[in-house]
């Protein structure tokens, strides 16, 4: 094992070698340059770094990691720094280097006939979507930060988004990976195969690994036929139980062509309208519960309009839907989605809150929301639960807003208790305390509480085998 060079002249010499590897444009020791990298973009975590490193190629990443392994310098990989759990933020010691992939942005290859695209890990998600569209193909991973998040981070956190119901999570969309290991070796797993049973599926160790086992530098991603018949509907529904009835009806009416099915309670629309310009109430009358639904087909005449209309006709007859509007233009569709996509920004302006990214079985979503809202209300009368999200895959973004007029300090005194009530309710429904945002720093303490000792033991042994010196993103996940 190499001597510890994390302090003193040996470390300084290692950092100088790293600077030589990446060149003048690839590093900075200016604290002002570090600010957007070492602070979480939504706040909550502030770190320091010994050196900001921005390699431009897999070879440079490999050489940097080789030096870090020899000198035992810990490394924090980062994509777009849009994560929500502090996974890509260094600690406050200033001993870790931050390795950003934001210079690695090449679309390496598009194979329309194989329905694949091969990309650098630093590619912005929206740019991958655009490149696929230019080839008359579709990359379905879609989330609010897609204009700034990077695919390496999306894969490292196994991102979900609004299209999981139809296309799956990030791990379902990747065929191959290129990964730089903690010792600097490069694993070239950039296979474009749908079928490959030659041993363990190693790529899945790194998808959702949050950079704790290695650094994803490239990926082969699945593409799909480009949707050319998209129908979007905003519906007021009878109650929460109705959302599952409506989802079932949608899947049957569309031939399982439901791309998105989002639940939005009235409290969320009210918060949007208080804090966002351009939000239009989707209906003249106010209702308590809404669903944002989208069908899509690959052909212009896929019949999605008639499927949507038929579904709504049945839903009205059965009393599932109380009111509905189908988008009549792309602008109208965007207005519907603005209500959903603006929730995060609007919530930041609403005042003190706790927020959790959880999942339960789809069939249990209504009962989970009802029971958890009641428990939270009993603990803090006047609190405003606002669970919304991807009902089609059981993922609820559960915010609990402070009672009107309560100070942030007073809310902080009860927030831990509210966290506990919510997470215990998730566990009671055999759910997950992290559906799509990852573990990072925020949720690490929950792992020994809600994951079994056998699971944790396997994870620790994997970590110790691949990263025995704990150099990769230490302090995250485990």
Summarize the structure in words:
The protein is of the alpha+beta class and about 475 residues long. It folds into four domains: about 10-100, Uridine Diphospho-n-acetylenolpyruvylglucosamine Reductase, domain 2 (2-Layer Sandwich); about 105-225, Uridine Diphospho-n-acetylenolpyruvylglucosamine Reductase, domain 3 (2-Layer Sandwich), CATH 3.30.465.10; about 225-350, Alpha-Beta Plaits, CATH 3.30.70; about 350-435, Alpha-Beta Plaits (2-Layer Sandwich), CATH 3.30.70.2740. The chain has 16 helices and 18 strands. It has helices spanning about 10-20, 30-40, 60-70, 125-135, 150-155, 165, 205, 240-255, 265-275, 305-315, 330-340, 345-350, 365-380, 410-430, 445-450, 455-465, and strands at about 25-30, 50-55, 75-80, 95-100, 105-110, 115-120, 135-140, 175-180, 185-190, 215-220, 225, 230-235, 260-265, 290-295, 320-325, 355-360, 385-390, 395-400. Strands 15-12-14-13-17-18-16 form a seven-stranded antiparallel β-sheet, sandwiched between helices. Helix 1 (about 10-20) packs antiparallel against helix 3 (about 60-70), helix 8 packs antiparallel against helix 10 (about 305-315) and helix 13 (about 365-380) packs antiparallel against helix 14 (about 410-430). The radius of gyration is 23 Å and the shape is globular. The mean pLDDT is about 95.
